[in-house]
Amino acid sequence: HHITIVVATTAQEEGSNIAPILCYIQREICQPCWSLFKTFGNESMKRSQSAASGDPQFPLDRAEEEATTIPLRIQQPLMSFEVPTPNLSPRRAMGFSVESRPTATRRLPRISHKNLGHSCLLLVLLLSLLTNAQAHISCISPVECREKVGPDSTCLTDAGYCSNPYHRYGCLAQHADRIPRLQNRTLLRTCHSDDPPDAVTRGYCQPSPLDYVEIRVSSQNWESVFFTAWIWQILLSELLQVPVSIETGQANTNVDFYNEQLRMEYGVANDWHGLRQGHSVQDCRKVKSVVASNNNPESSDLPADQNYISCTHAIPEMWTGHSVTLRQLQTEEVIEAPGGLGALGAQSWFVPRFTAQENPALLTYLGIQETQENRHTLAQTFLRPTTWEDYCLYESADNCQTPNEIAQRPPQTAAERVQYFNQENQLYIGHFRNTTQNDCVKWPNNCTGHIVDFPCGWASYVSQQAHHLDIAVESNGNQPGSNGYSYGEMTQIWAAANATRSHVLMQWWQPEALYQEYLGTDAEFQKVRLPPPTQDCIEHRVDPLVRCSDDPAVRVGDARGACAEAPHALFKIVGTAVFDVSHSPLVSPALHSPAYQALKQFRISDLQLGKIFDYWFAFEDRD
User: Fold this and answer.
1) Please, which residues bridge with residue 545 across strands?
2) DSSP codes, 562-579
3) What is the phi/psi pair of residue 560, to 5°?
4) Which residues pair with 407 in a beta bridge?
5) b/e string for 425-464 if b means 16 or more Cβ within 10 A?
6) Residues 108, 23: contact at Cβ < 8 Å?
7) What is the DSSP letter of 531?
8) Residue 520 dihedral angles phi and psi, to the nearest 5°
9) Which of 5, 28, 243, 293 is the most buried (most CB within 10 A)?
10) Angle at CA 202, nearest 5°, toward 200 and 203?
11) Residue 245: partners with Cβ closer than 8 Å, 6 or more residues away
């Protein structure tokens, strides 16, 4: 196929800050593509079929007219996204020109920037509507759910929380009245393999009209990935009619945008086995319920005896710490070269603002490097976070039988016993205690302050940095190998520090929900300045694959690698299987799935993710 060059300019009307869509539709466009265009496009564009009057555009030949492509680009303050048609050649996806042979002239209608501006609001609403799509929202009656969530939510009385209003029909169908281009359309989301067997007969969703292969997206285990995965689900399954499911990497764990129970659960990160499985089987629906042993020995986040086979086609967000593994997956042709997500990521050591205000010297490595005085300051400042059970055992005089400002009662479940902060009812607000490691009277030359480090499987250089910079801190979590903490434990520890006004030092990153949540508060994340990064330092980092080695010398690595981390572009990972299932040789190119181009060309920035977090935090009843 020939590709028509599409030139888009930004025209801004008075009082408007929305860049218009400029697109071109061929007369012979196939019906599915035409439906896609009508979702976004200007109503007046349909007059192009009858050669309505307008300024002459570029000349087209017959080959161009027969090409069934829609070059469509949307750019507006929240997100940019390029929507291709099913048969756009993946080798020409970047918008480079391909010469054509103009032999005829065709007139297209003038494009109203005002109408196109309305169309651009669609993607803005996609983000703002995520406000209500959160974890369990407690309720007693259906009236509460209609008020809190929306008219299509009801109270699941057995569970005590509201149902997901987008389980039926989808997100856009519920809000079509707010989107001018969709007001006269009947929208119904495309079903996926995690939907109930009777979802179609009950009218909740429809099968993919062109029988596109389902795309399975990995959720990792942090919120920015959840949100991006949800946007992918909405765009693909509601606009492009491609079924999309979410892979958490664990059995009985769910973060599907359309899940009726609004479940938002954390799975595993960096599921290399799932990518290999997706490459092997192509269609992940074939292995969803298969039981196997030793599912994923390569991922430290997965227990070796977990009887579940994961399968995934794409990962929305990936950090650069796993470059060695990603190169290996490219060599195996499991994935394509990582593509830019559009966001910048950065991780560092952080303390709360109230800690920095009390002792500004803590904000630079120069103020905390090895002297006995600094060692003692760190040990006295950064005490060890304490679980609910340990507080009752070691700090409470009567095992928490008498309520106080820290704990209202003893923990009653296994989950409560290991909590550092009780989020649901704040029955335990956390505690930081002076342990043997903090005792500089008994151990004046070996006492240490505490730093909250990542679990194994995540890229972290805390041990290398602290050891070679002579900073007397160490992590004492229960995560094997790293002595770090799980994601949930880390968020609880920061919440406990805020609630009790206790000092804490923690490795963290942005863009991320917790970082965004505390912006502008006394517990706002304040970066600790470490030596500036250099190329030589980066090349001498400890390999994430061995940073949890039993050998202490391997864990701390080379002194030349002890510097700060520079901000870097975040990647999205698209498996080669996405191209394969989107471009089946068994069907006409006009019927190819648009999934590959949609994922490859999706972009979102860290500031846009931050805006989504703001919507989320504004929702008072989020879990």
Assistant:
1) none
2) -SPPPPEEEEEEEBHHHH
3) -70, -10
4) 428
5) eebbbbbbeebebbebeeeeeebbbbbbbbbbbbbbbbbb
6) no
7) P
8) 80, 5
9) 243
10) 65
11) 192, 193, 194, 214, 215, 216, 217, 256, 284
Work out the end-to-end distance of the chain between its first and last CA atoms, rounded to an integer number of angstroms: 50
The pLDDT, as a whole number, for residue 69 is 32
Tell me, what amino acid is at 141? S
Indicate whether 161 pLDDT > 70: yes
Cα–Cα distances (Å) from 203 to 132, 189, 207, 245, 444, in that order, read 22, 10, 11, 19, 70
Q: Are 487 and 221 in contact (CB under 8 A)?
A: yes
In 10 A of CB 183, how many CB atoms?
A: 9
| Strand blocks (E) in 159-213 | 161-162
Whole-angstrom distance, CA of residue 25 vs CA of residue 41 = 10
Question: CA 237, 240, 241, 245 torsion: positive or negative?
Answer: negative
More confident residue, 505 or 544: 505
Q: For residues 531 and 564, is the Cβ–Cβ distance under 8 A?
A: yes
Beta-carbon-side half-sphere exposure of residue 135 (alpha carbons within 13 Å): 12
Separation in Å, CA 393 to CA 407, 408, 429: 12, 14, 16
Which one of 57-71, 82-96, 471-485 scores highest in mean pLDDT? 471-485
**Under the phi-then-psi rule, with left for phi > 0, alpha for psi from -120 to 50, and beta for the rest, what region is 453?**
beta
431-433 and 384-386 beta bridge pairing: antiparallel
Task: Give the SS3 label for residue 496.
Answer: helix
Pairing of the two strands 339-352 and 506-510: antiparallel
Kindly state the average pLDDT of the residues 409-426. 93
pLDDT of residue 107 exceeding 50, the answer is no
Place of tokens 């000092």: 503
What six digits make up the tokens of 460? 């972290």
**Cα 73 to Cα 20: distance, rounded to the nearest angstrom:** 9
Q: Report the C-alpha gap between 265 and 221 in whole angstroms.
A: 8
Single-letter code of the amino acid located at 519: L
CA distances to 378, 380, 406, 517 from 450, rounded to whole Å, are: 8, 10, 21, 23
What pLDDT digit, counting tens, does each position of 234-257 carry? 999 998 999 999 999 988 888 999
**How open is the CA angle 255-491-460, to the nearest 5 degrees?**
95
| Radius of gyration for the alpha carbons in the chain, expressed in angstroms and rounded | 27
Q: Please say if the pLDDT value at position 413 is more than 80.
A: yes
Kindly provide the residue ranges of all beta strands, DSSP E only, lying in 284-412, ordered along the sequence: 314-318, 339-352, 384-386
The answer, yes or no, to whether the previous bond of 180 is cis (omega within 30 of 0) is no
The answer to whether the predicted template modeling score (pTM) of the entire model surpasses 0.70 is no
- Sign for the pseudo-dihedral over CA of 478, 482, 488, 494: positive
- What is the spatial distance between Cα 491 and Cα 514, in angstroms, rounded to a whole number? 7
CB 59 within 8 A of CB 102: yes
Beta bridge partners of 218: 247
